């Protein structure tokens, strides 16, 4: 008679321990497949050579936008440290920056709709006569026998020229939830 009581107690204890473990797990963050987490953004370089408009469309098919740059810390610490690792030989990368439809020399980030207040220009830029779209461009040298890229900086380019695109999306926060049914329970990762 004691045996069924012990087994029942053990099963209930095991379930309660598992419930406690699942409910006490901290949340975590993740990027969509193929994207890399860089600070609080998820970045992806690729999609082949595209003009600025095709690049914007490509990023949108991934539920993302082209890269926007908020401040110097994000640019220097995160983006330019990411590019040598994930875009080692990419000289020009389209960003969402543009002055399309603006008669002045104001630039906006297409992905956020906000005016671009931090613009890390390359030497001699901006040259409005070159176009209306912003590209991250790196100078290179081959003095050592291999290609060495300088830090990427913004340049103004004609939107119809070809370049590689850099897409961004936000990091998704998840938390663990416990799903119970009559026969078992499951842990589910729920976006917050």
From TrEMBL:
The record places domain C-type lectin at 38-168
Q: Which UniProt keywords apply?
A: Signal
Q: Cross-referenced PANTHER family, in alphabetical order?
A: MANNOSE, PHOSPHOLIPASE, LECTIN RECEPTOR RELATED (PTHR22803)
What name does the UniProt record give this protein? Blast:Lithostathine-2
InterPro entries (alphabetical): C-type_lectin-like, C-type_lectin-like/link_sf, C-type_lectin/snaclec_domain, CTDL_fold
Q: Cite the SUPFAM superfamilies for this sequence.
A: C-type lectin-like
Q: Write the signal peptide boundaries.
A: 1-17
